[in-house]
Amino acid sequence: MRNRDHTEPISSATSQTDEIGKFELYLRYELNRSKLTADAYMADLRQFISFITFSDRQTAGTPLPDGNNSSDLHISDVSTATIRKWLGSLASGGNSPRTIRRKTQSLRTFFRYLQKNGLINVNPAADIVLAKTDKPLPQFVRESEIEKIVARPEEEETFIEHRDRLIVNLLYTTGMRRAEILGLRDSDIDLTSMQLRVTGKRDKQRIIPFGKETAAEIESYISKRDADSEGKEPGGHLFTHRGRPMSAKKLGGIVASKLADASVAKKSPHTLRHTFATTMLNHGAELNSVKEILGHASVATTQIYTHLSFQQIKENYTKAHPREKKRNPESK
Predict the structure, then answer these.
(1) pLDDT in tens, 174-229
(2) What is the pLDDT averaged over residues 128-152?
(3) Among 162, 165, 273, 274, which one carries the catalytic annotation?
(4) Would you state the pLDDT for residue 18?
(5) 210 Cβ partners below 8 Å, 6+ apart?
(6) What stretches of the chain adopt beta strand conformation (E)?
(7) Count of alpha carbons within 13 Å of 233, Cβ hemisphere only?
(8) Catalytic option among 33, 108, 163, 177
(9) pTM
């Protein structure tokens, strides 16, 4: 049922499209969300709009959740029942609780934006209970494995080989996020002070230190890159592919390939971020120091890695203590 007392009702497909476009700008420049987050929210919103479009539902022979069979259903017509119907369809379609939770949050944010601008009176997503999700411990690469992967080979490397190994090395030694390493420019790196400046979530900048060996690797790589015909690109990005800034897809493929033989199920840039944090804490780093390097807003986010470290301690205990070895013959 359409709310009739809106200050500025969304009464046409054109105005609805306009508001969706403005919402994307709101995400990026008012809420200061990253491009990746904004893209995910917009994809969720467009999926929901497709769900409530009469032509799509008519093809499936299914009436609209509100009993409204008019093709004139707009965002301002949406009720809580409509959203629940959509979320139910997602669950039936095999979407995970984590995915459904994020899509609910996307709609909450959009309807909150409409409410803030006087386009609706009530946020229909506000009372939707977020799907409960398990919080499994992050996966990480074993230290012995990652050290072999990032070690400099004895034979001479090509530019591509050096680039790919350095990418994994930097993700492992700095804990950078995927978007952060993709946005890294030559001007962000100080080889003398051995530190780099990254721009993280909500455009917050932080400084990350690195060691002499990594500094030498970066310097050698830049020299090879600039000598390569498809290396350096005008924007000054550190990592390039065919003379252009590297894409997220290409980065993911490089990491997956380099971690192919590692005994970890998930082979992604974020796995290397987890590996960095776990390694730091296992070697005695203070929790707050790891928090600052990772760019976490709260130490509570970083604390999950203390559980990882404790789990590793338990595993080592089980393998090493004589009483436990008697109970677990396989640990001998």
Answers:
(1) 999 999 999 999 999 999 999 999 998 888 899 999 999 999 999 999 999 988 77
(2) 85
(3) 273
(4) 76
(5) 170, 173, 174, 194, 195, 196
(6) 189-190, 195-199, 205-209, 240-241, 244-245
(7) 14
(8) 177
(9) 0.62
The structure tokens listed for 145 are: 């494995």
**Half-sphere CA count of 83, side-chain side, radius 13 A:** 26
Is 270 tagged catalytic? yes
Residue linked to tokens 């002499």: 212
- Is 201 among the catalytic positions? yes
Residue written as token pair 């990491």: 255
φ/ψ region of 134 (left if φ > 0, alpha if ψ in -120 to 50, else beta) reads: beta
Query: How many angstroms separate the Cα of 314 from the Cα of each of 54, 156, 300, 317, 331?
Result: 56, 41, 22, 5, 13
DSSP state, 214?
H
Low-confidence winner among 132-136, 289-293, 310-314 (lowest mean pLDDT): 310-314
Helix (H) or strand (E) holding 195: strand 195-199
SS3 content of the chain, % helix, strand, coil (to 5): 60, 5, 35
Q: Which amino acid is at 302?
A: T
Under a CB-based contact definition with an 8 Å cutoff, are residues 250 and 181 in contact? no
Note if 6 is an active site residue.
no
Distance separating alpha carbons of residues 235 and 121, to the nearest angstrom: 45
In whole angstroms, what is the distance from residue 321 CA to residue 283 CA?
21
Long-range CB contact pairs, 151-154, < 8 A, 24+: 152/217
Q: Is there a catalytic annotation at residue 273?
A: yes
Would you give the distance in Å from CA 193 to the centre of its chain? 29
Active-site residue identified among 201, 206, 241, 325: 201
